[in-house]
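Support request from a user on the community tier.

User writes: "When I paste my structure tokens into the form, the page sometimes reloads and wipes my input. The last time it worked, I copied everything first. Here is what I submitted, just in case something in the input itself triggers the reload:"
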């Protein structure tokens, strides 16, 4: 709900409907598994181990998917569900006195809003409405560096929609406008990722992984080179050549789930090729490299590479 605290008040901003109950009734107890920086007004900053009293769980069928609204250290706001370990129904874990003492009230939230700069809550970034890209954020700094040289980043495109991608926490740890090189990172969207690994592995049981050999020996990881219909180009790299197979139906389903998170709604703008790699364990890896094969023409023009990781968590360096 968006509104003013009173008819003649200059204080205005967003609140979840649950905040208008006489007593804010937490539904879940959570603990921050890692430190989280605030993305701006309306978002929580958490330290590892902080207690979060969850008031509202974002609907899985809306732009709130993957987000929680709650209270931590007397402050109300949103945080990503990926950063919180949910435990049990808090109403079974605390008596009413403890809950009442731990929870902030609506007056405390109004006081917080009144301390904000004029108009800041009018553009407050919350998963309930179109998100403004904060200039001081990682994404904002990357956008400021990319736009003057004519680049539009996927993270920026993904933050311009209101239904599909509001509040997506895109980060850009690498920004190098001199090399026209930007690396963006979107943390796991568990509500989408669950089940996709099984879909891939089941599909590859039918197609079969390839392990081509070069002068250095046989590749330890499994690989598959997939292309859109009409493309017959082989993928030649590192002294090996991999034949193409057409995108199976499940690959199109995966792109339909993930490409909008990259700001690519139109299927005509989706990638027309995909190199799948299957790493058997933590010793399997791919060294630092450049995707500079003539096939991609990356030395002649700007190109985008989208990497999706499924399964066990591992370092991406």
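"...and here is what came back when it finally went through:"
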């Amino acid at each position: 709900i968006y509104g003013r605290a009173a008819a003649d008040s200059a204080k205005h901003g967003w609140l979840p409907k649950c905040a208008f109950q006489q007593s804010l009734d937490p539904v879940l107890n959570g603990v921050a598994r890692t430190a989280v920086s605030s993305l701006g007004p309306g978002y929580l900053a958490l330290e590892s181990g902080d207690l979060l009293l969850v008031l509202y769980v974002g609907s899985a069928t809306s732009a709130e998917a993957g987000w929680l609204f709650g209270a931590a250290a007397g402050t109300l706001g949103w945080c990503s569900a990926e950063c919180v370990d949910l435990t049990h129904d808090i109403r079974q874990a605390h008596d009413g006195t403890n809950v009442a003492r731990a929870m902030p009230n609506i007056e405390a939230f109004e006081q917080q809003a009144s301390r904000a700069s004029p108009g800041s809550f009018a553009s407050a970034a919350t998963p309930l409405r179109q998100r403004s890209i904060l200039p001081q954020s990682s994404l904002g700094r990357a956008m400021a560096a990319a736009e003057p040289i004519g680049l539009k980043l996927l993270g920026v495109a993904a933050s311009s929609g209101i239904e599909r991608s509001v509040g997506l926490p895109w980060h850009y740890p690498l920004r190098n406008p001199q090399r026209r090189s930007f690396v963006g990172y979107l943390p796991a969207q568990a509500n989408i990722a669950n089940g996709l690994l099984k879909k891939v592995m089941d599909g590859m049981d039918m197609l079969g992984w390839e392990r081509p050999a070069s002068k250095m020996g046989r590749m330890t990881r499994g690989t598959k080179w997939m292309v859109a219909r009409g493309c017959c180009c082989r993928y030649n790299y590192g002294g090996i050549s991999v034949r193409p197979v057409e995108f199976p139906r499940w690959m199109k389903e995966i792109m339909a789930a993930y490409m909008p998170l990259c700001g690519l709604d139109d299927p005509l703008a989706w990638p027309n090729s995909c190199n799948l790699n299957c790493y058997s364990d933590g010793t399997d890896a791919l060294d630092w490299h450049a995707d500079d094969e003539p096939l991609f023409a990356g030395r002649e023009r700007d190109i985008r590479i989208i990497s999706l990781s499924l399964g066990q968590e591992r370092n991406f360096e």
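Agent notes: The reload is a front-end session timeout and is unrelated to the input. The two ends are 41 Å apart (CA to CA). Residues 196-207 form the longest helix (12 residues). Escalated to web team.
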